[in-house]
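Good morning,

Attaching, inline, the backbone tokens for the sequence recovery test we're adding to the shared suite. The designed sequence is right after.
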């Protein structure tokens, strides 16, 4: 699972483990929107979840609440399909009973300002609002609930997913419904670019050829709000090709680096992740022993030194400005203290457009035109290294450049704060 010259940073129990099924060499590689999204958000999480099949940590309360809401609405539509119309309180009772039955004290409540009962109430309100908005639930015929759908990408790759509810509204008119319990609302632009339900639309069209008009509907239950979108056949086929490209890219990877973000707070693999594992290992130590652990003590000292250096740098900058102002007001080139002096040297300072500035390309063209490019152009080691890693340099070019390359292990430390 590591490339040449790279260290396997996984916990010992995962080192040397073979990838799970669905890897290169299998007859049909099955992916999902969630699987692709996991790789995009953090390749290391993708590796733990889909290749190593590592044990998950405790479930988050947001996920738990969302599952109970989905179950309540699924039960509601099952009853409607049986020509039964449950009362609002029947559905709420179903939701509450499932919550109580399946709740586990190990479930994580990440947000310190909230408790489990808050989420239970949010879920209950979401179910009530939905019931009142769509009662008596005659907006179409429910063809499938938690319906599995397969989308063929090519002869050896497919996407699998589950539609919360598939509805036939009339001949040729179908709807894909997705329930969301998140506390952020999707914009129309995001809906029109969404990959998951668009993939499901591809699958629905293949299973039901008469589904000529398929509308994608997201129910944002916390807001009692719908977001709708559609796709043309051309857009769906373009999506199929794009997703296949993403899948092939993922399958070509041999290393899976960590990508830390705010999403880490909700990740079930933190205790195994090289970006977070030591935090949990240190926290298992008795309170009195924790500061004495070598690594903990080193980090504490490093951060303390960083704080002191930052304080001194701020003070130094302030002193520089004050001394320069004094020298300027008095017309001095040197200012003296009791233990030495400071020469005040003034000079014009130039700045140039950086790589992100659109004028940078114009400047480089001018340098070439006036014959100064060879003198002022410089190689960016970082950009060159990335180009080599990303395959932007052909094997033939890499072979020509190899004699000029010195390889070493790089290390950077960035102070961080909780």
């Amino acid at each position: 699972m590591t490339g040449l010259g790279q260290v396997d940073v996984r916990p010992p129990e995962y080192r040397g483990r073979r990838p799970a099924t669905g890897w290169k060499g299998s007859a049909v590689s099955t992916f999902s929107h969630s699987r692709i999204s996991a790789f995009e958000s953090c390749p290391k999480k993708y590796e733990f979840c889909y290749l190593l099949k590592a044990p998950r940590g405790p479930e988050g309360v947001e996920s738990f609440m969302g599952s109970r809401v989905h179950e309540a609405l699924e039960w509601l539509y099952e009853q409607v399909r049986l020509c039964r119309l449950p009362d609002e309180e029947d559905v709420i009772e179903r939701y509450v009973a499932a919550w109580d039955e399946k709740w586990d004290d190990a479930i994580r409540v990440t947000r310190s300002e909230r408790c489990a009962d808050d989420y239970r109430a949010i879920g209950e309100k979401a179910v009530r609002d939905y019931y009142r908005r769509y009662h008596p639930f005659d907006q179409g015929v429910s063809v499938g609930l938690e319906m599995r759908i397969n989308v063929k990408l090519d002869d050896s790759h497919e996407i699998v997913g589950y539609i919360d509810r598939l509805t036939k509204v009339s001949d040729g008119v179908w709807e894909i419904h997705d329930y969301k319990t998140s506390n952020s609302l999707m914009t129309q632009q995001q809906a029109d670019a969404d990959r998951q339900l668009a993939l499901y639309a591809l699958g629905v069209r293949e299973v039901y050829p008469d589904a000529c008009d398929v509308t994608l509907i997201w129910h944002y239950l916390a807001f009692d709000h719908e977001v709708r979108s559609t796709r043309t056949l051309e857009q769906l086929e373009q999506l199929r090709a794009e997703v296949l490209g993403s899948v092939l890219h993922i399958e070509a990877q041999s290393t899976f680096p960590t990508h830390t973000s705010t999403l880490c707070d909700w990740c079930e693999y933190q205790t195994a992740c090289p970006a977070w594992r030591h935090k949990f290992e240190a926290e298992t130590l008795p309170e009195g022993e924790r500061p004495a652990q070598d690594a903990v003590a080193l980090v504490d000292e490093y951060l303390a030194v960083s704080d002191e250096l930052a304080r001194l740098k701020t003070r130094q900058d302030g002193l520089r400005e004050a001394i320069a102002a004094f020298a300027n007001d008095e017309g001095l080139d040197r200012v003296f203290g009791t233990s030495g002096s400071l020469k005040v040297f003034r000079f014009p300072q130039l700045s140039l457009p950086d790589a992100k500035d659109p004028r940078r390309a114009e400047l480089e063209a001018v340098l070439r035109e006036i014959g100064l490019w060879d003198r002022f152009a410089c190689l960016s080691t970082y950009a060159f290294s990335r180009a080599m890693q990303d395959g932007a340099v052909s094997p033939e070019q890499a072979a020509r450049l190899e004699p000029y390359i010195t390889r070493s292990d790089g290390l950077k430390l960035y102070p961080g704060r909780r």
